[in-house]
Design brief:
Number of domains: 2
Largest sheet: 2 strands, antiparallel
Structural class: mainly alpha
Number of helices: 8
InterPro entries: CALM/Myosin/TropC-like, EF-hand-dom_pair, EF_Hand_1_Ca_BS, EF_hand_dom
Order of helices and strands: HEHHEHHEHHEH
Pfam families: EF-hand_7
Radius of gyration: 16 Å
CATH architecture of the largest domain: Orthogonal Bundle
Oligomer: single chain
Keywords: Calcium, Repeat
Protein name: EF-hand domain-containing protein
Domain EF-hand: 7-42, 43-78, 80-115, 116-146
């Protein structure tokens, strides 16, 4: 992949930090499993091991930021189809009403092991909420991937 911009690198670091729930600067197999479970992605132990080995290029048993960045950069910044974006949005929109609410975002972050305050989750919502209705609509969600 071509060189990342500072903003792209920071976005990847923010994603990495969400996965790194124990703040060790490494993602363990258990942390990766917790993230997949939070997103309702079923992976067997064998599939999880394969994913880890693909990302863990230094064979340390954990994924550091550079390994994460090398694997994720190409897919993280690609242009997604409407179908892919809708599928991702549905993972967050638990009640299927077409919006991601503060509660839904807090719930998924909690399942990932990230227990943020209500104010922190509201700030995340507000950063994407362009019509100021207190929730994230699909078109606002899509702006994350522009």
């Amino acid at each position: 992949m071509s060189k990342l911009t500072k903003q792209q690198e920071q976005e990847l670091k923010d994603a990495f930090d969400l996965f790194d729930t124990d703040h060790s600067q490494k993602i363990s197999k258990n942390e990766l499993k917790r993230v997949l479970n939070a997103l309702h992605i079923k992976a067997s132990d064998q599939e999880l091991s394969q994913l880890m080995s693909k990302m863990d290029t230094d064979n340390s048993g954990e994924i550091d930021f550079n390994e994460f960045k090398n694997v994720m950069a190409g897919s993280f910044f690609k242009k997604y189809s409407q179908q892919e974006l809708k599928a991702a949005f549905r993972k967050f929109d638990a009640d299927g009403n077409g919006y991601i609410t503060t509660k839904e975002l807090a719930d998924i972050l909690s399942r990932m092991g990230r227990h943020l305050s209500r104010n922190e989750v509201e700030a995340m919502i507000k950063s994407l909420d362009k019509d100021n209705d207190g929730r994230i609509a699909f078109d606002e969600f899509c702006k994350l991937f522009d």
